[in-house]
Amino acid sequence: NMDSTLHYIHNDSDLSTNSSFSPEEERKSKVQDVVPQALLDQYLSMTDPSRAQTVDTEIAKHCAYSLPGVALTLGRQNWHCLKDTYETLASDMQWKVRRTLAFSIHELAVILGDQLTAGDLVPVFNGFLKDLDEVRIGVLKHLHDFLKLLHLDKRREYLYQLQEFLVTDNSRNWRFRAELAEQLILLLDLYSARDIYDYLRPIAFSLCADKVSSVRWISYKLVSEMVKKLYMASTSAFVVDLLNELVEKFCRCHKWSGRQTFVFICQTISEDDCLPMDQFA
């Protein structure tokens, strides 16, 4: 059945689901013809709390880990069989279960397509953004992979929330900020010059002044890529304003570390050919 399953997966026609099922319709909504129904029923029962007590305390985590594979096998036309189970796992009391889903939500989005992703995955994604750092890091590590699957207007909504990634449960969790800098480099391709200047620039400058050198080094690369992107966008006002702010904020900083940051950013801009030399000068 794999050929027909893959055909369904790549078919863009998403089936709408009715949220007000009767018990009989509820049972029918879990029926499909790709795998033996008894096997699927056993899988769906892994979220039953009694199973955690009698079979394995981490059975819900195993269920969450396998869910993208099950979704791929069933195809997007059978997502209605898994939707309730996914939402149950997404609100599980154990953070390890939610973390597992957070790390794979971008893969599931590819399987389901943009319509189902917007309707069923985006609300879960938004919930993970406000979760514990252990869960948020799963979303953050694949932020670009998920956002690039959304429509532009939906994608722009997340510009307002990127600033929140600078705040962590533990301020010593510098790897979180380093990952944010890495993701922002990738996100430059998804947003306009104005969005980059208005929303990503303040975050980048904040990361350049981080207390941890590993975060700062990635941030220098982020700023240089930002300079290149703004210059290539042929909106000279943005790149000139950005360069002036670099001079004002770092070159003329009263702390030696700020002035050192300016030198390192200049080095990165120069090495990566982000600006023509006359503009650089």
* The CATH topology of the domain at 33-150: Leucine-rich Repeat Variant
Report the top-level CATH class of the domain at 33-150.
Mainly Alpha
Shape: elongated
Q: Encode the helix/strand succession as letters.
A: HHHHHHHHHHHHHHHH
The helix content, as a percent range, equals 55-70%
Coarse structural class: mainly alpha
Strand proportion, as a percent range, falls in under 5%
Rg over CA atoms, rounded to whole Å, is 23 Å
- Cα(first) to Cα(last) distance is 63 Å
Give average pLDDT, whole number: 87
How many strands in all? 0
The largest sheet is: none
Low-confidence stretches: 4-19
CATH 4th-level superfamily of the domain at 33-150: Leucine-rich Repeat Variant
User: What would you say the CATH architecture of the domain at 33-150 is?
Assistant: Alpha Horseshoe
Task: State the helix count.
Answer: 16
Describe this structure in words.
- This is PP4R1 phosphatase.
- It comes from Nyctibius grandis.
- GO terms for molecular function: protein phosphatase regulator activity.
- Keywords: Repeat.
- One of its GO terms (cellular component) is cytoplasm.
- With 281 residues, the protein is an all-alpha fold.
- It has a domain of 118 residues: Leucine-rich Repeat Variant (Alpha Horseshoe).
- 68% of the residues lie in helices and 0% in strands.
- It contains 16 helices and no strands.
- α7 packs across α8 and α8 runs parallel beside α11.
- 31% of the residues are buried.
- About 6% of the residues have low confidence.
